[in-house]
Please model this.
Amino acid sequence: MSKDTSEAEVNVRRHGGRYIYEELRRQILTLQLKPGAPLDEVSLAAQFGLSRSPVRDALARLISEGMVTILPNRTTLVTPLEIEEFPKYISALDLIQRAVTRLAALYRTDDDLVRIQKADDAYMRAVDSGDSEALTETNKALHIEIAHAANNPYFVGYYERLLGEGQRLTHLHFDFTVTSANATKLGRDHAEIIEAITRKDADLAERLAHEHTMLFQTRFLDYMRQNMTESMAVV
Model:
């Protein structure tokens, strides 16, 4: 038994359902568990060496976050990525991202700014490392700090769910993004937003948040166009 394997088993026994949740969440967000993949309680319990109860708890939490879906026939699976729904996703992300960023500019405190800057520093380290998992996690953490600065908790839960969906979409096209022309802007697209929040310029913060969403959309659609073109070329 390798050291890594034994440490993983210790973590499972020690943290139970929380570890299962975190591990399944990581695998879903990084597409290690593919969209639409079935999730069977019995198989997962055997895999993690625990009873079905903590597995069921972990799945329930993932269902509440929209990462796992239960079909009418009670089949449990990783929530599919509905690419045809991407325009609706972008509309929802744009609206809430503009709202929380605008409110953050209006209501942020000095302590909020410290937390936002710390989160951005972590994001930039992830960009430099080239670690896609760290990059999407730190990007999400930064935007959640901005949402907290907006001082309206009703936004946070829904925004977090949208950002989680964005993580999966980012992993889908990450390699393309970092090797495309867009890569020159990767990592720099938060600086102006943070500056607008710092200056309490709500109009500018909202406009930059919109541009930030549109940049994400452009990167994804560029990937899809190239991916579709390559697929057609193969045929």
